[in-house]
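Task 17 of the worksheet. Students: predict the tertiary structure of the chain below and write it out as structure tokens. Keep your answer in the requested format; marks are given for formatting as well as content.
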Amino acid sequence: MEYYLDILLKLALSIILGAVIGFEREYKNRPAGLRTNILVCLGATLVQIISIEIFTSYHQLSNIDPARLGAQVISGIGFLGAGTIIREGANIKGLTTAASLWVVACIGLAIGQGIYVPAIIAAILSFITLTALRGIEGRMFRKSPYLNIDCVIDNKPGQIGLMGQTLGAMCVSIRNIEFRNNEGAKITVFFSLVVPRNINKDLVIKKLMEDEGVFSIEQL
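Model answer:
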């Protein structure tokens, strides 16, 4: 009975700790949310339980490495993480979500091995990293001169030139331009800009929105 209670504790704890990190991802509407993180953590825990069981049952008959299945989880989770990474022009999204899935899998393996305290601490620190440090990161890099935006504009001659004049008047340099969905009356254009430190980035976006033929701007 004690054996089955121990397994139940491990699986229940994996659901709780997976949900802690998954909640934050779900709240931010990321590709891998609450259920994905719970299932990853639960599956990793189960794999480690199975590894221990196999080792306990057959270690006298064969030279079995109890970490072998766990190692496959660590490498195999990369395929799931890769599915959350999205490339949009010069920008890559989903790296944090992929990293969180990898950490959740490691937490699950720790729970399966019965290493509860490090697993709980790792889950708490991961949650803090995903929440509190995001605000600190934003403040630290707010003064970065680079600004990446997606603009939905009118597909007509001279539109890019008009926006270039607006940027030039503010001494904003254009590093890169990429055209997307360039069919129809509207097109989406990606701008990578270098903004002088004395110019507010919100002001740059506001001035561009005042140009005729600019429908929307999204900061990336």
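Marker's comment: The CA atoms of residues 120 and 187 lie 48 Å apart. The helical segments are 2-27, 34-58, 68-82, 95-113, 116-140, 159-169, 201-209.
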